[in-house]
């Protein structure tokens, strides 16, 4: 595996110039493998966990769940605090915050704790923390292909580091909403990620081996019925996603079952995965600095 001479700490300030950081990630020889590793891991987690599967299929629900974890780590998760975050993000209306909390309670991922004189707290259960930690591991394993010295986050002593990473990652995601690289993928987000199951369909296309290049020019073969079955969506919903992709000049589903990504879609797909990896690397680097400031040792995790 090719390694980079730039260690994890070099990514700590990556979000200060997101375009330069995206260029670094995109130019890395392991970028295609890292992007596909991230997509594949999310599909595998979805297949194993019904609750996370439902969260991952909805961009707004995913963001709110990420922030639910972060708010728990920083003063407690309450309905008013989650509503405020949803409003700032633009991905989820404040009115959906209550339904998300009820959804997570249904799956025994949150316990409601009454508070006298204030809003109730929603405490993540051990099951939620374990599941969300698995999600963090998946993200960090993908980013490891760009920065191998992320390894300390993945060893047996890593849960505390990963919790710090998760909080910082959520803060970075919120700060990036509507600015920088996020604005460049608005059409792509609208077509593939905002609709229910759109992200699942996109990940399925990303891990296709029809085109070894990344971003791929084609993916598949797939069928409307097959994608509906594996994504848990209706055929009408899957068809709608591809109709909107065609109308937006992003992608076409050919009669032979192959999805042809237009140049605009390929560019935006590359931007989308580069942004994700930059945010993961930046959060990990910042968590590393914070951890070593606590113990008074250096400013970065040792290289592996």
Description:
With 304 residues, the chain is mainly α. The chain has two domains: 8-182 and 275-295, no CATH class; 184-269, Winged helix-like DNA-binding domain superfamily/Winged helix DNA-binding domain (Arc Repressor Mutant, subunit A, Orthogonal Bundle), CATH 1.10.10.10. The protein is 59% helix and 5% strand. The protein is built from 13 helices and five strands. It has helices at residues 18-27, 31-48, 50-56, 59-73, 79-89, 97-106, 126-144, 159-176, 186-193, 198-206, 224-231, 235-247, 263-295, and strands spanning 110-113, 121-124, 218-219, 251-253, 259-261. A hairpin with a 7-residue loop joins strand 1 (110-113) and strand 2. Helix 8 (159-176) crosses helix 13 and helix 11 crosses helix 12. The longest helix has 33 residues, at 263-295. It starts with 17 loop residues before the first helix and ends in a 9-residue tail after the last helix. Residues 1-5, 178-185 and 297-304 have low confidence and may be disordered.
User: What is the strand tally?
Assistant: 5
Q: Give the uncertain stretches in residue-range form.
A: 1-5, 178-185, 297-304
Report Rg: 19 Å
Major sheet: size, sense and barrel closure? 3 strands, antiparallel
Our measurement of the CA-to-CA distance between the termini, rounded to an integer number of angstroms, reads 14 Å
Mean pLDDT: 85
Query: How much of the polypeptide forms β-strand, as a percent range?
Result: 5-15%
Order of strands in the sheet with most strands = 3-5-4
Derived from helix and strand composition plus strand pairing, the structural class reads mainly alpha
Total separate domains? 2
Could you give the order of the helices and strands?
A: HHHHHHEEHHHHEHHEEH
Helix content: 55-70%
Question: Number of helix segments?
Answer: 13
How does the overall form come out from the CA principal axes? globular
